[in-house]
Amino acid sequence: MNATSRAGFAPALVALGAALLCAGSVWGLAFAPPEVFMGEVQRIMYVHVPTAWNAMLVLTYAFACALAFLFTNHWKWDSRLEAALEMGVVLSLLLCTQGAIWAKPTWGVWWDWDPRLTTTAVLVFAFGGILALRAFVDDPARRAVWSAVACVIAFADVPIVYFSVKWWNSLHQSQSSPETVSKAFHWPLRINAFGILFLWTGLVAFRARVAALRLHGEIDVQPPAKLPATSLPRPKGVW
Amino acid sequence: MNGILAALRKDLLLTWRGRLQIVAVFAFGAAALLLFSFAIGPDSSALRQHAAGFLWLAMLLASTLSLAESFERELEERALTGLLLLPVSAAVLYYGKAIANLIQLALVGVLLVPVMVILYDAGTLRLLPLLGVIVLGAAGLSAPGTLYAAMTAQARARQALLPLLLFPLVVPVLLAAVKATSLLVLGDPMGQIRPWATLLAAFAVIHLSLCGLLFGRVVDEG
Questions:
Q1: CA B146 → CA B20, B25, B74, distances in Å?
Q2: Percentage of chain B surpassing pLDDT 70?
Q3: Hey, are the CB atoms on B195 and A130 less than 8 Å from each other?
Q4: First to last CA, chain B
Q5: pTM
Q6: How far is residue A152's CA from residue B189's CA, in Å, rounded to a whole number?
Q7: In percent, how much of chain A has pLDDT > 90?
Q8: pLDDT tens profile A38-72
Q9: Which residues pair with A74 in a beta bridge?
Q10: B157 Ramachandran zone, left/alpha/beta (phi>0; psi -120 to 50)
Q11: B20 min Cα distance to partner chain A (Å)
């Protein structure tokens, strides 16, 4: 289990991320100019937009971990998948909450059935469901394979959900990125994006280590690095 | 192909022998349709507006019953282990069961339509397109549902787990099927039904291929 050695840089990442997030937020709240139409409310963009980017990033990482586990059967990918799934659900929940706080003064409603908002809510439930699946399966090998499979399917479903809701209803403003917003907003946005990035990579490294240690306790004193041979793909299967 | 037909035949035979179960699932769906009308109140025009949504919500709720049942009986006396020892790939077993679930769900859907017509006065004479939407929607529900039922049947808290995993995933099916059925019931002056039916078909094809690919890993007896 090499996850123990790999978490060495995690505290540094978390500290750097927290510092950047503080710096970017202070800049965004106190020094950046208010937006012309939305006024002070718009300042939530400095956490909202970086959260959105990072939520997508961490869920993509979870998908990569799931694929890596299915192809290599290596336990380390299962621990990372668990950590990334939890972080993805937390960031998506934060994204929904921030969006609702911003939407009330801007649109006049907490919630709207727009494609990105609805897709994020669906993401929370889809990936939260996989966490529930992990909680209710006791056999570590089955838990690992099943959650990886569920993660691949859920990730493949995201674009379909997005486009189906888009056809169904639409109102959200177009995405904010450094190209679509004024130059005065760039720096706090970028600093916060990297702050959240470092924060979640550090926390995911920590969490993966915890998952790996728990796996240790569940399987054996000396767990095999890979799934036992009986759980390898069946020779007659499609694999 | 022969393997899929054999697996399908086995699953349909099982369904036929336990046909009371379909009746129970249908009764559950019909009861749900009756209950939905209490949420809206006795306003017949509002009920008619929402009839398609109610039909598909009833289908979705009923599907969790029939999907879960389809795998629970494979676990009795380790029948699944026996099936996996057969000289066919696990994907064949998946497709047999997914198609059997599709037929069963579509049958429940077809039986629920008259209930919808009577309760909500929401009928249509375009029966063939309606049947098509029901079959495509049932395919969209049973494609991921069969795979998830295989997992949750062997987990703790299975009654809660299957809907928890399945419902967020099938949001596109629900949206598209409700829209398409609504257009059939309330009229479709702009000819919008085709894109929704295409979305349903695309969802079913994507999930049938993906789940067929992954099913072998899920049912590994280990």
A1: 20, 16, 12
A2: 99
A3: no
A4: 27
A5: 0.84
A6: 39
A7: 34
A8: 667 777 888 888 899 999 999 999 999 999 999 99
A9: A226
A10: left
A11: 30
Q: How far is Cα B119 from Cα B116, in angstroms, rounded to an integer?
A: 5
Integer CA distances (angstroms), B211 to A48, A186, B93, B95, B155, in order: 34, 43, 12, 9, 19
Of B88, B165, B175, the CB nearest to A168: B175
CB contact set of A138 (below 8 Å; sequence gap of 6+):
B156
- Flag whether residue A146 sits within 8 Å of chain B, measured between CB atoms: yes
Mean pLDDT check: name the lowest of A130-139, A196-205, A215-224, B16-25.
A215-224
B222 and A230 within 8 Å at the Cβ level: the answer is yes
For residue A128, the Cα-to-chain-centroid distance in whole angstroms is 11
| DSSP single-letter state for residue A234 | P
Answer whether B128 touches A (CB < 8 Å). no
CA distances from A162 to A17, A89, B134, B172 (A): 30, 17, 23, 9
**Spatial separation of the C-alpha atoms in residues A78 and A85, rounded to whole Å:** 10
The token pair at A7 is: 């978490």
Nearest to B178 by CA among B199, B164, B163, B205: B199
Could you read off the pLDDT of A95-141 as tens digits, one per residue? 999 888 888 888 888 888 778 888 899 999 999 999 999 999 988 88
Q: What tokens appear for B92 in the block?
A: 């064949």
DSSP string, A154-196: HHHHHHHHHHHHHHH---PPPPP-TTTS-GGGHHHHHHHHHHH
Please give the structure tokens belonging to residue B26. 């249908």
SS3 readout for A2-52: CHHHHHHHHHHHHHHHHHHHHHHHHHHHHHCCCECCCEHHHHHHHHHHHHH
pLDDT grade for B155, boundaries at 50, 70 and 90: confident
